[in-house]
Amino acid sequence: MTVPAVTLAARRREGTPLLSVRDLQVRFTRRGRAPVRAVDGVSFDVAPGQVVGLVGESGCGKSVTSLAVMGLLAPRGVEVEGEVLFEGQDLLALSSDELRELRGRDIAMVFQDPMTSLNPVVPVGTQVTEVLRRHAGMDRGQARDEAESLLERVGIPDPARRLKDYPHQLSGGMRQRALIAIALACKPRLLIADEPTTALDVTIQAQVLELLKQLVAETGTAMIMITHDLGVVAGICDEVNVMYAGRVVERAGRRELFASPRHQYTGGLLRSIPRLDAVRGGQLTPIPGSASDVLPWERGCAFAPRCSAQDADCLVPDLELTLDDVRPEHRLRCVHPVPPPGAAL
Amino acid sequence: MTLIAPGAGSAAGDPLEGPTATVDEHGTSLWRGALQRLRRDPFAITGALIVVVFVLVALFAPLLAPYAPAGAQWGNQVTPSDVPGPSADHLLGLDAFGSDLYTQLLFGARQSLIIGVVSTGLGLAVGALIGLLAGGIGGWVDVVLMRVVDVLLSIPSLLLAVSVAAVLGRTSISVMIAIAAAQVPIFARLLRGSLLAQRNADYVLAASSLGLRRRTVVLSHMLPNSLGPVIVQATLVLATATIEVAALSYLGLGEPNPTVAEWGRMLVKSQNRLETDPQLALLPGLLIALTALGFTLLGEALREALDPKFRR
After folding, report:
1. Considering the domain boundaries, does residue B266 fall inside one?
2. Any domain includes B152
3. Interface residues on A facing B, Cβ-Cβ cutoff 8 A
4. What is the model's pTM?
5. What's the CATH architecture for A5-243?
6. Region annotation Disordered: residue ranges (chain B) (predicted)?
7. ipTM value of the model?
8. Cβ A119–B207 below 8 Å, yes or no?
9. In what order do the strands lie in the sheet with A89-90?
10. CB atoms A131 and B26 under 8 Å
11. Among A104, B178, B220, B243, which is disulfide-ready with B211 (CB 3.0 to 4.6 Å)?
């Protein structure tokens, strides 16, 4: 029985989320020093088939969030709290063996650097087949055939020959395609892509993004796209979470966010990248300061030291992520939001 | 600088887009690449030649030698003051006991090779196992194993070898165990170290993200990446082993059977004839040095060929 597309879409909107991250906290503890809060109360949902973006600059906690979801943080020196519900099951409460069963089969990950994420001394084919043999219970021959068709699906020409190749014999784009093939080998329901295009050059970036978009749409895999590149967000995400200093500061649908960013940080990010509809010769406006100029959240808005709209009101302890009163689909954590277009002046 | 006329640039061929090396190298591993680099290295070729000749001589000693190595067949020709020199019957003359020197040298290669290879194999196997457990499992297993290895390492290797040989008695087997015991800490630490260096590699994280078992990640991902330095070390240790075999039998802890030719013992027995017949000591000494040199050259060249820093 096939489900009509309309009902599927409706189920996506209303049904229980595939992944539900609730108040996730990650602290790195170091002997004799104050713990570092890398992720500080992050909550978000991912519905089946949805592409959710986590955007922010280096050090904002987006990669740590993804590693915490996968249970891949080093066991020592890290404290993880909160809930990561995958189909209602709290991943943080699972034993490492139970988690290992899930990883690669139900949740898979594509990493940032295709140059180093493949084992240099193991042929590509072996690296594709081992996950099939581990989770799909295939024997050597079946796994080899499946690996060949996987490589073909991700657009690697002459897959039979490529299976015998070692990673250094593949170009960067090819390697990222191979990594995507490996991640999607067992048809996971959730794919976490951690800056999958950062290490690639621009034309290859576009190809890899297009491939991801197409594969996700074909298989109905939900995806968390972690990136610092707003161009990637614009190209692929349904919903966007903007992170700053370990917290989500703004959440909105993709169109909403680009049409009318409300948080000062998001506004600053969008002003700092070139736009096609901008006036020719117009200047880009960078955000002053660096990501290390933060205020602890318990004293006020962490972005206040770099914010042009900040004043004494911004020193509210633990600002909440609240529904925006102007844009109902929008949530943000800001005392002085950017006025929506049209409302200005 | 002049501007390139429109149309001229693309025809001339942008250096960036020029034909890259399109040699068909499908399935070429790092090891095969290293072999190709070795073939261009004169030191590697010299080392490999010495090693190959040594191994061939050791293997085919019974065919190459004009006589059986029974020893002392011509004892009556040796006087306290004189050993017969080269003659038509004896290419290099006789040794101090009246055996054919050439035969003894050939069979000595065999003894050195057997003891060197077996002891290095043993040391490698035990040391690598300890290193694999320590580096692969980590935690308290690592702590305990490494402290044991530290204790072993704190004893000078020759002293360790001497005490093992003294405890187990004078046989070839005890020499092998003694030399192997001295090598265990080297291999254990080396493999553990390279495994630890791999632990935070991206591909290990990626493999873990696929839900592969810890055992699989260690054995089929981390281990193959850690073997390079161990294999290099094994080659270098073979050189030391050859010297240690000789040293142990020089100290009287080697193979007791006098009919087994052994370079180290040949050195001892010819000591008091150094003034009258220096060739008795010089030839086996030279062979010990040459063998050690061969293994060292090969090992060092292998290290360079496998080291990404030296790669061209």
Report:
1. yes
2. yes
3. 70, 72, 99-105, 108-109, 111, 113, 116-123, 126, 130-131, 134-135, 161-162, 164-166, 168-169, 179, 182-183
4. 0.79
5. 3-Layer(aba) Sandwich (3.40)
6. 1-24
7. 0.84
8. yes
9. A33-46, A19-30, A78-86, A89-90
10. no
11. A104
